């Protein structure tokens, strides 16, 4: 099942639990605006090349729309639509005053030079600058983009609208980016994990972890779990996978990856088949990579007791059912990976106020938001007698529905 179908299914289930009127249900599902643009740039060798860019603005009932821009060969309207909708529910779950959006360009950033990526980003910004805005739609980095990409968008947007640091989040700190933003998604995953384990009388230091994906989110989560005494017994990324039943030396592995660009040949762990990581022996599995990695083919073999969805949509609905029957506790993506958008909100607030926070304040506020959201989800799980995914979806959908009705848009 693709990401859009799965997201729609979760939304409809939440709408049923909440008893939403069919008119409001339909209006919440339909995106506010879908944008498709052709981005033609000269390559370094002088030839012209074209890429298709998308921006889906899903809902703005609770505030400006918010969502990342990804550069990836598989960017398509369905995926962007699903992720935009997920952002609507995610910002509502975290109770930050945003709606949802998502964007992307169908390209492989590895095939483009830095100057080509800059030209592509500037052309994309030229095409959408009048449809985004500090109080309309605020982009952020996603897969294949980073702080530098945001700096180019900020610069290009400012040519049309004057200096506007709050137009994007995830910027370099020198251009008004927030301290703590780079680690925010991984740190939020750790705060979410702590909140969940506390419900079961456990803490990170009591548990073993397997982490799929050792990019920004996975490596920060690994570092922070290691610092709290958690034992990381397996990690993987696109370059390979490693295991060590006694726990991997994460600071050593981070140094090794910085030097070599890959996980392979690290002396402190043995090689592992990357496909085995998801079914490796551990207490807590944290998928931090692409969607759909847990499916009906491998769900039966998952040994973890807890799954923390640091990636977007890592668990197919079929896998969800299999894992639930096995008693596996899944902390859903629309809550678990909301640390990034929460600190993006803090960055936006700082830019609007023109007053920057120190990193300790950012991290303390993030912990407060993540912990509060978890308890709100748990309360709804008890109210509706449902699992954490439906607890999160009912929380998010209900907040957006209430805002929509209060604004008088149901007609």
Automatic annotation (TrEMBL):
UniProt site positions, description: Important for catalysis: 142
Catalytic residues (positions): 102
Keyword Nucleotide-binding set for record: yes
Catalytic activity: L-glutamate + NAD(+) + H2O = 2-oxoglutarate + NH4(+) + NADH + H(+); L-glutamate + NADP(+) + H2O = 2-oxoglutarate + NH4(+) + NADPH + H(+)
Pfam families per the UniProt record, alphabetical: ELFV_dehydrog, ELFV_dehydrog_N
UniProt domain Glutamate/phenylalanine/leucine/valine/L-tryptophan dehydrogenase C-terminal: residue ranges: 178-408
Signal peptide annotation: none
GO molecular function, one term: glutamate dehydrogenase [NAD(P)+] activity
PANTHER family (alphabetical): GLUTAMATE DEHYDROGENASE, NAD-SPECIFIC GLUTAMATE DEHYDROGENASE
Protein's name according to its UniProt entry: Glutamate dehydrogenase
Organism: Cinchona calisaya
